[in-house]
Each structure stands twice: as structure tokens, then as C-alpha cells.
Design a protein that fits this description.
The complex is a heterodimer. By secondary structure, chain A is α/β, with parallel strands linked by helices. A 5-stranded mixed sheet of chain A has the order 2-1-3-5-4, with helices on both faces. In chain A, strand 1, helix 3 and strand 2 form a beta-alpha-beta unit. Chain A is globular, with a radius of gyration of 16 Å. Helices cover about 30% and strands about 15% of the residues of chain B. In chain B, the strands form 7 sheets. In chain B, strands 5-6-10-8-9 form a 5-stranded antiparallel sheet. In chain B, strands 12, 13, 14, 15 and 16 form a 5-stranded antiparallel sheet that branches. In chain B, strand 8 and strand 9 form a beta hairpin. The chains are: A alpha/beta, B alpha+beta. The interface between A and B is large, with 39 and 49 residues. Strand 6 of chain A pairs parallel with strand 5 of chain B.
């Protein structure tokens, strides 16, 4: 049985492979009409990402558009466009950023479908990075039956840890239109 | 699905069907999943029978649809509850004041109707957020600033109607006071325009607030007399420069002349930017609220700050004096041409030099706008007229009574703008915080955000435990009772406390409330408009008088 400790050392190659395989598999399912493809991977830039997670994310960037998230006005307009145009997004962020994104996403018809949080103690370990990879690989599939945990994020003492999440527009949904002018 | 009170299932269904014909099926929300979004994330009644949850939500596209929906609400006697963006967390969010109300979600009405750089105003619809307006101005390169609260994702109009405040110059900080003219759909479906807007073809709707006859605008602040569909705001000309200046004074009771002198400077309009009060004894230098980093506190002071029986201010005063740490600091935001900033600072220094031991430091005057790389380093960009959500990234939430804290409700009394009142409030509120073991800083300071009074906002923890939330509500009641006994009233509150707070405004046997309810009965005889908002009850919600 592979434990967290035995997995340490598997390294970035495995992470990248998991990431790529995950996306490929996911897209295959999407083509079969089981779910929709992921449009972007949103990465929280308000927190310092563990080194190995950063490398993993970089590898993911070869497959998906990466969108950096800042909770400021500079990033806001771009973020709104991503939320408006995306059918499904995944992300890695702090709890506080997820709290904001979930509410911003509501106005664009996005709903939180899957969520997890990771090991605060060993975020720099390869094991954690593997967990991130594994979760991202499987997260979109849980969309059909969101767990109670995933329904809505609530702030907690765990805000400082990393959260992985997936938001989707499950059906054509009325969303706040982009700002209009008269 | 929850039904509105005193509404039959048949009428409710018929009303929703009629609503859908006006706005389109996709803009009527009735599923549990959709209605979850209209819960108040920070509700102090979360999951309890008394939680104010919506029965449905409907999102009109324009004022004409609002009129039709209001008329239908009257026909079927269903309560509607307008929200703008529903982001006023801590004061109710998107949830209605009366459980079972149909939320009238105005987020689709997000047009910037008019902006005038020369005369410095904008007219917006309810769904325009501070981010929207900021980007609108930036895209056009207009030399205008907005005054935004923190966080900045809320509605410009909604924040003003709820009595919200910002952090730039005094004339713009009180958002309702900075408004100029509104368009309102009354509870009978009739549209009115206030001020000069009542004059067809008016050329000065946004330039002359009083209009002709009574000022009616105030009736739509924190009330339930109509749906505001357009609102004008005065905007601040973008200043050329900005800096901060720091003043420290050594003794506890120096706060009294400090506040008095600054008050005179403000009344004379020599000080217009927001100034913030803090104490270097806590390890902050006055502007440290804007920067992270471990504070170094002298051990003798630390022992006083961490005393389980509370901070004894007199002992802290003595310790501060012996260690050479000033007791108070205040940071002034200064805006304008460099020579104007220099003159303002000179006036501040001249006036406050009357306090023995006062020290002064003017920081570098920066030309605006600041480069992006410099802005990125600032935690709080509100004083620069820029919205952000950074307030949410202050750090992990804490726990209270073993429960995760998921949000807060504010206890927000207005206290006199005097040093004596500030010290008294610091002591009495800290005592209640200790009694309930509330998460509370060693020293909490009043805010100078209002022009002539202090705001003493205390964020009370909200959890998902009904037992713990009940304890917090009890703490709120005690804070309110303690404050009102001293003549300090709340300026704004969460829906769970509307009734409690309104009860404290009881002069002449609740004459104000009776007057508001007389108005309510006259303009909204069916009681369909935001019933219960700010405890203004229509006839059918009032208890029979004994």
C-alpha cells in the first residue's frame, strides 16, 4: 500500500503526469457528454504557495490556462471575465480567497461542486503535492453529487491552509450581465 | 419551500407565475440551491427557526420591470425585499428582514447611467458595484475618485442606502450624504424622482440636492418606502498627491485635547482626510495597521495588555511613560497639491503642538496614481479610492467557545467626539467583552470616520452553533443596553437586531417609530415592501396595542 511517506520523492514528474493524465481523462469524459471541460485553473496569488505545489501548478499550465487571483481591483476585471466565460473552473487557494470567489462566482452562475483542504503541516512535502494532483484529477467527477462539504465554503480556523475546489455551471443559468452602459 | 407569512400557496404560486412572465423564467429563482445564495452567510440566526430566509427571488432587468413586479406584489399581497448586490456582510447580506419574503434582486440593473467629470457626479443603477464604477472611471481615464468601503464588492447605491461609509475625504465618506438625487418606485408602483429630478428635463438634478419643498431622500435610507432604481453621487476630483502624517502624544489623558483640537481642525475644513487613532503601546506605530509584522512590546507593557482582568489604562499610562512609549498616535491622510498638503500639515502641527510632548512625522508625499508595484505592496488601498477584497485575507479566522468563527455582526454605536467618551467606551465595552470572553483586542479604538462623532464598531463573532450564537446575541443586548443608557445609539445593525435597536430610539414614547409606521401605512397599505426592514412595521405586522 502506498502511504504518504512512501510517496515522498515521487517528484514533479509524477505530479505533472497526474495532472496531464487527469485533464486528458477528464476531457475524454467531457466528450462523452458526462461533464464539461475545465476552462481554467485559478491560483491564489495572495498566499505563498509551497515550492513543490508551484512546480506542479506550472506543469498544469501546459494543459490549462492558469489565472492568478488577487483580491484587488487590478485583477478583478480579468477575473470577472474568466468567471463569466467559463463553464467549469478548478482552483487552489486560501479559504479566504475561496470565500470571495464563491460569492463572485454566484453572480456568474457558478456553483461550488467539489472542495477539499490539504495538510497544513507538510505543504512543502511531495506527498501533499501528490494529493493535490490526485484531487485535481478526480475533482470534476464529483460534480454530479456534491458532498455537503462542497455545497458552500464557510470560513474557519483552516483558512490558512490550501483549498482545492471546482466550480461549475451545471445548466444554462441566469447570471449577472457584464456591466452595461446606456 | 417557505411561504411568505399570511400568503396562501395558491396566491404565492400565482404571483411567481406572474413574476416569471415579466422577467422571464430564468430570472425567477425558487430552487433550494438558488435560494441558498440568498441566505446571510453571517447570520447570527443561522439554521434556527428565526433565520430570515427567502421564499423565492426575482431579478428584473430595468425599472419598468420593477414597477410591474411591485404592482403584482400588491395584487397577490406578497412581500418583496429589494437588494442591490447583497454583499453587506455583517449587516444582513442578501437575506430579507422578514422570513418568506421574495428577494427582488437588482443585480441585473448594473448600468452606469451618467457620469460627469466636470461637475463630479455619477448616476448609477443598484447593481453597479464599487469595482464596476472604479473600472468604468479607469477605462475612460476620468480624473475622478470613488470613496469605497472595505470590502469593495458591494453596490454603490446599496451601501449608501444602508448608511455605509468610506475612507477618503469627509464630504464623500458618508455615502448617503454624498448622494444627489434618486429615482424610486414607490410601494404602489408609482415612480418618483427626488430633488430637482422632479422637474421634467431638469439640468441640475445631480448638482442641487435640496430641490423644492421637503427633502424626501432621507425617507429611503435604512427604510422600506420604495425601490430605488437610480441614484446620483458626488465624486471626488482625483487628487494630485497623497501622504500620511503621524502625530504622537505621550499620556493617556492627552487624548482629550488631541480630539478637541483635531475636531476644530475638521470643523474648519483644515483636516478633511480620515485620521485613525491607535496606541503605540500595542506595538503599532500608528500606520502599522497597514503593514504586517511582529510587534515588539516592552515586557512591562505586555504584562498590562495581557492582564486577564483587563487592561488598566492608568497602569498602562504609567508604564508607557516610564518606557518612553507614546500612549496615542494618530495618522492623518492628506490629499491635494503638494503646497496644500504642506500647509495642512503645518496647521496640524501648529495646533497640536499645544499638547506637551507631541511629536510629528510627515511621510513622503507621493504623486498619484501610484505605480502598480507600489499599490501591490499596500494592504489597504481604500484611502487611495481603490476597491479591494483584501480585508478577507487578514488571516485565518479564530474560534469562539470552541466553534469556528464564520463571520461577524457589528455592534456599531455612535459616541461623542471627545476623548472622555472614547476612554469611557474603551473601558465599558472591553468589560463586556471580557465577561463574554469575546475575541477582542487589548485596546479597541474609536473611528473618526463620521465627521463630528466617533464610531465604535465592535465585530462580534458568528458561528454555526445556535448555542454559541445565542450567547453572542446576549452579549449584543448587553452592549446595546450599556450604550443606550449612556446616550450612545447604533447607526446601523444586522436584521436580527432591528427591533432591539429601534426600541432604544424611544423618545416621547416611541414617537419616531409611530411616525414611521404612520408613513408606512400611508405609502404601503398592503405592507409588501421590505416588511420589517429597520423595524418599520406595516399595520399587519404590528402587535395590537393594549
Amino acid at each position: 500500500m502506498m502511504t504518504r511517506r512512501t510517496a515522498i520523492g515521487a517528484g514533479l514528474a509524477l505530479a505533472a503526469a497526474a495532472c496531464t493524465a487527469g485533464f486528458a481523462s477528464f476531457e475524454t469524459r467531457a466528450r462523452r457528454g458526462q461533464t464539461s471541460p475545465i476552462d481554467a485553473l485559478l491560483i491564489d496569488e495572495t498566499i505563498e504557495m509551497p515550492r513543490q505545489i508551484t512546480a506542479f501548478i506550472k506543469a498544469c499550465g501546459q494543459r490549462w490556462p492558469l489565472v492568478g487571483i488577487q483580491l484587488d481591483a487590478t485583477a478583478h476585471a480579468g477575473l470577472m471575465q474568466v468567471l463569466n466565460k467559463s463553464s467549469a473552473i478548478v482552483g487552489i487557494s486560501s479559504g479566504a480567497t475561496l470565500f470571495c470567489l464563491e460569492r463572485l462566482g454566484w453572480d456568474h452562475g457558478l456553483r461550488l461542486r467539489a472542495r477539499t483542504q490539504w495538510c497544513a503541516a507538510d505543504l512543502n512535502g511531495a506527498a501533499c503535492q501528490q494529493e493535490v494532483a490526485a484531487w485535481l484529477k478526480g475533482a470534476p467527477y464529483s460534480a454530479a453529487s456534491p458532498s455537503p462539504l462542497a455545497r458552500s465554503y464557510r470560513p474557519s480556523r483552516a483558512d490558512g491552509t490550501l483549498h482545492g475546489w471546482c466550480m461549475q455551471k451545471s445548466r444554462p443559468r441566469a447570471a449577472r450581465p457584464e456591466r452595461r452602459e446606456v | 419551500m417557505k411561504l411568505p407569512p399570511n400568503v396562501s400557496q395558491a396566491d404565492f404560486t400565482a404571483a411567481l407565475s406572474a413574476f416569471a412572465k415579466i422577467v422571464g423564467e430564468q430570472w425567477l429563482f425558487t430552487s433550494d440551491e438558488d435560494l441558498e445564495l440568498y441566505r446571510d452567510s453571517y447570520s447570527i440566526l443561522w439554521g434556527e427557526a428565526d433565520e430570515r430566509t427567502a421564499s423565492a427571488a426575482v431579478a428584473p432587468e430595468n425599472a419598468e420591470q420593477v414597477i410591474e413586479l411591485v404592482k403584482l406584489a400588491n395584487r397577490y399581497r406578497v412581500p418583496i425585499y429589494p437588494i442591490s448586490t447583497g454583499k453587506n456582510l455583517g449587516y444582513g447580506g442578501a437575506a430579507p428582514a422578514l422570513a418568506g419574503s421574495i428577494v427582488l434582486d437588482l443585480k441585473r440593473m448594473n448600468r452606469v447611467v451618467e457620469i460627469d467629470e466636470q461637475h463630479g457626479y455619477v448616476v448609477v443603477e443598484p447593481g453597479v458595484s464599487y469595482f464596476d464604477l472604479y473600472h468604468y472611471i479607469q477605462e475612460r481615464g476620468l480624473k475622478l475618485w470613488i470613496d469605497c468601503p472595505s470590502p469593495g464588492w458591494g453596490s454603490v447605491m446599496g451601501n449608501a442606502l444602508d448608511g455605509g461609509v468610506g475612507v477618503t475625504l469627509a464630504p464623500y465618506r458618508s455615502h448617503f450624504d454624498a448622494h444627489c438625487g434618486m429615482e424610486v418606485v414607490l410601494p404602489n408602483g408609482r415612480m418618483v424622482r427626488t430633488g430637482m429630478g422632479a422637474l421634467p428635463g431638469a439640468k441640475t438634478w445631480q448638482q442641487f440636492k435640496p430641490g423644492f419643498g421637503p427633502r424626501t431622500d432621507g425617507l429611503f435610507k435604512q427604510s422600506n418606502f420604495g425601490v430605488v432604481t437610480k441614484m446620483g453621487f458626488w465624486l471626488m476630483p482625483a487628487p494630485e498627491n497623497h501622504t500620511t502624517g503621524l502625530v504622537t502624544v505621550p499620556r493617556l489623558h492627552d487624548l482629550i485635547p488631541l480630539v478637541d483640537i483635531i475636531g476644530r481642525l475638521e470643523q474648519s475644513k483644515l483636516v478633511q482626510g480620515l485620521w485613525t487613532l491607535s496606541s503605540p503601546t500595542t506595538g503599532t506605530g500608528g500606520d502599522a495597521a497597514h503593514s504586517a509584522g511582529g510587534a515588539k512590546v516592552d515586557p512591562s507593557i505586555l504584562a498590562i495588555l495581557t492582564d486577564p482582568d483587563g487592561v488598566n489604562l492608568d497602569k498602562l499610562d504609567t508604564a508607557a511613560l516610564s518606557t518612553g512609549v507614546p500612549f496615542w498616535s494618530c495618522e492623518f491622510n492628506l490629499y491635494g497639491p503638494k503646497k496644500f498638503i504642506a500647509a495642512q500639515w503645518e496647521c496640524i502641527c501648529d495646533a497640536l503642538a499645544a499638547i506637551p510632548g507631541a511629536r510629528f512625522k510627515l511621510n513622503e508625499i507621493r504623486t498619484l496614481p501610484l505605480p502598480a508595484k507600489d499599490l501591490a505592496k499596500l494592504f489597504d488601498v481604500g484611502p487611495l479610492g481603490i476597491p479591494s477584497l483584501r480585508t478577507f485575507s487578514l488571516g485565518p479566522m479564530i474560534s469562539y467557545e470552541g466553534e469556528d468563527v464564520v463571520g461577524h455582526v457589528f455592534f456599531s454605536p455612535v459616541i461623542p467626539r471627545t476623548g472622555e467618551a472614547a476612554i469611557e467606551a474603551m473601558n465599558v465595552f472591553a468589560e463586556i467583552a471580557r465577561k463574554y470572553r469575546l475575541p477582542y483586542p487589548p485596546l479597541q479604538f474609536p473611528s473618526a470616520i463620521f465627521e463630528r462623532a466617533f464610531l465604535f464598531a465592535v465585530g462580534l463573532p458568528v458561528t454555526r452553533s445556535p448555542v454559541v450564537n445565542a450567547k453572542v446575541r446576549k452579549a449584543f443586548e448587553e452592549l446595546l443596553s450599556m450604550a443606550s443608557a449612556r446616550g450612545w445609539g447604533e447607526y446601523r445593525t444586522a436584521p436580527a437586531f432591528y427591533e432591539l435597536v429601534m426600541e432604544t430610539y424611544s423618545f416621547n414614547d416611541h414617537a419616531l417609530r409611530e411616525f414611521l409606521e404612520t408613513l408606512k401605512d400611508a405609502v404601503d397599505p398592503n405592507g409588501i415592501m421590505s416588511p420589517g426592514r429597520y423595524a418599520i412595521r406595516s399595520r399587519h405586522l404590528r402587535e395590537p396595542k393594549g
